[in-house]
Structure formats: C-alpha cells, structure tokens
Specification:
The protein is α+β, with helices and mostly antiparallel strands. The protein contains four helices and 21 strands. The strands form two sheets. A 16-stranded antiparallel β-barrel has the order 2-3-4-5-6-7-8-9-10-14-15-16-17-18-19-21. The protein has a two-stranded antiparallel sheet with strand order 12-13. A hairpin with a 2-residue loop joins strand 12 and strand 13. Helix 1 runs antiparallel to helix 3. The longest helix is centred in the first third of the chain and has 41 residues. The protein starts with a helix and ends with a strand.
C-alpha cells in the first residue's frame, strides 16, 4: 500500500529494456545486408533471434506481473477513497505531469513493515491578540506512518503524531491506529463494494481534513470551520456504482480511549465524480448525547471543539452537522468549495441554548509554472446567537468563554514545489469577527512561512 513509486520505477525500467533489446538484432541485420550471408551465419542469426524472442517473452511476462501488482495497489488505494487518511489524499493538481520525485521510494521497508513520515517546520507572527504575539519558530507538524499486512486482505495501519499545530506538546500521541479489512465484498464477486476498519481513525465528515496536512495544504492556515477529528469506532467504506461512501460509528467524546456515555456518534459521507473535472460529496453527522464530564466532542470545529455552553446544571449536549463539498479541476487551477450547517443544543434546565451555526469556504490554487503556485481562501462562520469560535484568537478566551457571532478569514499564499516531497510556502491571513455583545475582534491577522516535507 505504500510502495507505489518503487514498483512504477521497476515497471518503467522493464519497458525501457524491452525497447532497447531489439537494437542488436537491427545492427546484425544491417551488417548482414552489406555482405553475402552463409548458411552458418543465417543459423547463428536465427538462433540469436530465437533467444531475443525468448527474452522479450520473459520480460513481457515480467511487465504483466508488475502491471498486475501495480493495479492491485492502485485498487487498494482507490478503495480507501471512501475515507482516505490524509497522507493518502494529497491534493489533486490540475496538470497531469507529476512533479519530480527525488526519492526511489516514499517509504522505508523493514520486512513487512512500511514506515513513512511527513512534517513541517514554520515561522509564525501575529499581533498581540493573535495566537503568536511573539515571533515564533516551531515544529508545526511531525508524524510517522506505519503500515503492515497481517493476514490476507487484513492490514495494520497507524499514524503517530510527534507534533501538531493544535498543541505545544512534543509528546508522542496516537493519531490513527486500526485494522483494515479490505475487499470483504470479494466474497460475492465485487472487491470494491465493502471494506471495513476498526480502531481509531479520522471521522468521515467533510473533505478538508483530507488535505489539511502541511504537505497537502496549499496554504498554511485552514478554513475558519476546519472540521476534523479522530475517534475510536468501526467504519465501513467502499464503492457503489459511481459513488464512494463511508459510514462510521464512534465514541464521539473527548480524545480518550474510554467513552463516558452510551450514545455514540454516527457520521457518513457519499461522493461521486460525474466528470473528470468535477467531484462532489455530501456529509452528515450527529455527535450523540455527550456527557459534560467527557468535556468536549471528538470533532474539531472553529479551532476548538463542541462543548457545553449551558449552566452548571447542564449534564449533556450534542451537535448535528451537514455539509456539501465540491472540487473543480480546471486547467492550471484547482477550486474547492464547501458549505455546512450545525445545530447545537443541550439539556440546560435554566436556559434555551439552541444554536444554528452556518459556515462555508471557497479556495483556489493556480499553478503559474510547474512548481510555482499561488493560493487564496475565503472562509466564514456565522452564529447569530453566538458560539465559541476561536479562529486565530486566544484559545482560553474564545474557546470556552466569549461567544462570537461572526468570524471570517482571508488567506493569501505563495508556494514553490521542489518535488512531491518538498514544498516551501508563505502566507498572510486577515482575521476579523464580532462577539455577541458587538465587541469587534481584530488584531488577529497572521504571517507565516513553512517548509513542508514527506518521506
């Protein structure tokens, strides 16, 4: 699942050898035409021809064998598009020609175990009210990916997080860890219809999380809504006709290995590619009734989490979400758009805290050359009655105390792709909003530089 570049190189090498081999035979024929040919020479030439044909047949068999292996790997990757992990869901570039790959393989192989990694080192600066009031160098991201076959079509996969934007801790954390049961539906003759995974994995809601890692994100910031999260549970995914789907049942609560409530979250997404230039999907999710003791939801929203905004008498809360996504692949330009709705409520006996929240973003990436690109994203969250929207502000203030009714972000960026494994980029984002009492939120703009990589 993680050795594709090496196998493609082998396949191309065999094809190149196949083209080169007829050269000696053509040279022999040229020499033969320039002088009379004896019977002995003819027999020698015939023998050489037979040997060459045998070599061609052997290499053709090798090519076919490699082609089958590559097709099988591509089929496995295609099956995961129902809910791919972000590292396998790199943003699709408009041009067909790939960037140069400076490595012979994207992973290290230790027996059956494949190890890969991604990360980013960055510089951030914001005004006093922003998240980086002091000029800050930091490890923005660092993670390792482990992948190994277990038995048959059962695979082990794990993402180990060494550093994340959302925390200053450099402790090792588990991002994903699951068993993948692939091609279950081959039992009735359709390998792509049904697959399953069990463990900890990304919540299959929306699509921004699939390209939010530094190496895939054309910008450095994310949208204001920035919906993503990992949680423990089970998931089925696959392909039904032209549509890809993913449905998951997960704990729903704070990032922990133990759930504090019986009700579970349910999420799902269905998508299709009606044309080569258009991709669309629709997602829905319910967090389930979350115990206030559990703290927050597993899903991330607005640079924070869903949590109770009720009085101390509140014991449970929930959020229901829907979202639509679209991707337009135009010549030299990639456009992504999404819009969604959230309903929050709780069982506070002292007040009605029901909230309707709307959000959307529009993003465009344009390639000026094969390596140089620019990107822009406009995103906004609207909550008429107010909700805790951190944005680019202070987490302690806007994540749990002040209620914001409107927040928007305009991100402008420029990047250069040295290869598929190395990108440098810079960005300036404008961030503004207003609190429920009319207080204006400003001084949260942000400047950032980043070098993103993978291996």
């Amino acid at each position: 699942m993680m050795g594709m570049p090496y196998k493609r190189t082998a396949l191309l090498g065999c094809a190149f050898a196949l083209l080169v081999l007829p050269g000696p035979f053509a040279l022999a024929r040229e020499d033969a035409d320039s002088a009379p040919m004896t019977r002995k020479e003819f027999l020698q030439l015939l023998q050489q021809n037979q040997q060459l044909q045998q070599q061609v047949q052997q290499q053709q068999q090798t090519i076919e064998s490699l082609s089958k292996k590559v097709s099988a790997l591509e089929s496995r990757n295609a099956q995961t598009t129902g809910n791919p992990s972000p590292q396998t869901a790199a943003s699709t570039r408009p041009e067909e020609q790939p960037l140069p790959d400076t490595t012979s393989s994207s992973t290290f192989h230790f027996g059956k175990l494949d190890i890969g990694g991604e990360g980013g080192v960055a510089f951030f600066k914001s005004p006093p009210s922003g998240q980086f009031p002091h000029s800050t160098f930091r490890i923005d991201e660092a993670r390792l990916f482990l992948d190994a076959p277990i038995w048959g079509d059962i695979y082990f996969y794990s993402e180990l997080d060494l550093a994340q934007r959302e925390t200053t801790s450099l402790a090792l954390n588990v991002g994903e860890l699951y068993l993948d049961f692939e091609s279950i539906s081959k039992l009735w003759g359709n390998e792509e219809m049904l697959n399953a995974r069990a463990g900890r994995f990304y919540i299959p809601f929306g699509e921004e999380y699939q390209y939010r890692f530094a190496i895939d994100n054309p910008l450095i910031s994310h949208s204001v809504s920035d919906i993503w999260g990992t949680d423990d549970g089970v998931e089925i995914y696959g392909k039904l006709g032209p549509a890809h789907y993913a449905v998951a049942v997960q704990n729903g609560g704070e990032v922990t290995s133990q759930s504090l409530q019986g009700d579970k979250s349910v999420s799902g997404r269905i998508g299709a590619d009606p044309t080569k230039w258009l991709h669309v999907s629709a997602s829905a999710m319910r967090t389930g009734e979350l115990n206030v003791k559990n703290g927050t939801s597993a899903i991330w929203f607005g640079n924070g989490w869903f949590h109770s905004i009720g009085s101390h008498s509140t014991t449970s809360f929930h959020a229901n979400l829907v979202e639509g996504d679209a991707v337009f692949r135009l010549p030299s330009t990639l456009i992504r758009a999404a819009g969604g709705y959230v309903n929050y409520n709780d069982n506070d006996p002292l007040a009605n805290n029901n909230r309707d929240i709307y959000y959307y973003y529009l993003e465009a990436t344009h390639d000026w050359t094969h390596s140089l690109y620019s990107a822009v994203r406009w995103s906004q969250v609207l909550a008429h009655k107010g909700y805790t929207i951190v944005g680019a502000g202070n987490m302690a203030e806007y994540g749990f105390q002040e209620l914001t009714k409107d927040y928007w972000r305009l991100s402008l960026g420029l990047g250069y792709r040295f290869s598929q494994n190395m990108v440098v980029k810079g960005e300036y984002s404008f961030n503004q909003g207003s609190e429920i009492d009319g207080t204006f939120r400003d001084e949260e703009n942000q400047f950032a530089l980043e070098a993103a990589f993978k291996f």
